Amino acid sequence: MASIFELIIAGDIPADIVYRDEEVVAFRDIKPVAPVHVLIVPTKPIPTTDDVSDADLPLIGRMYAVARDIARSEGIADDGYRLVMNCRDHGGQEVAHLHLHLIGGRRLGPMVGGEAAD
Ligand code: 5GP
To answer: Cα separation of 16 and 71, whole Å?
Structure first.
């Protein structure tokens, strides 16, 4: 079954797309945790970071370059921001399609805070 992000990439469900090319799509998170919260995803359906192959590494680099460029265009590059990629259950990954969170626009708290409910 296609993940929610595959449906967004295909245009089957709406999203606020901020960037798109053949390899990478970026759209605003539906539940933003900061003034800027964009998800950068590969069009290739890689489920998690644990599924990334060495052949995918240029694609991962492209995702970071897209995040860098969006941070600049959103005006948060000078103040700084956070890039996060969660992996599987303990990492808090909800959507099994690789994605990089670009979060910024305010000062962020500690990277890991509080305990997750099991
Ligand atoms: P994860 O926890 O997997 O690292 O992050 C998944 C993110 O996807 C969450 O921040 C969540 O708010 C976002 N998200 C889940 N469903 C949708 C959706 O349908 N549209 C958008 N734009 N974001 C979504």
So the answer is: 16
Say yes or no: CB of residue 59 within 6 Å of ligand 1.
no
Residue ID of nearest Cα to ligand 1 atom 8 = 29
The H-assigned helical ranges of the chain are 4-10, 57-73, 88-91
Domain range list for the chain: 4-104
101 is catalytic: no
Taking CA atoms only, the protein residue closest to ligand 1 atom 21 is: 30
For the residues 77-96, what does the mean pLDDT come to?
Answer: 98
Calpha distance 115→117 (Å, rounded): 6
Superfamily of chain region 4-104: HIT-like (3.30.428.10)
Asked whether 64 and 84 are in contact (CB, 8 A), the reply is: no
pLDDT at 112 over 90: no
| Pairwise pLDDT comparison (111 vs 96), residue with the higher score | 96
Closest ligand 1 atom number to CA of residue 4? 19
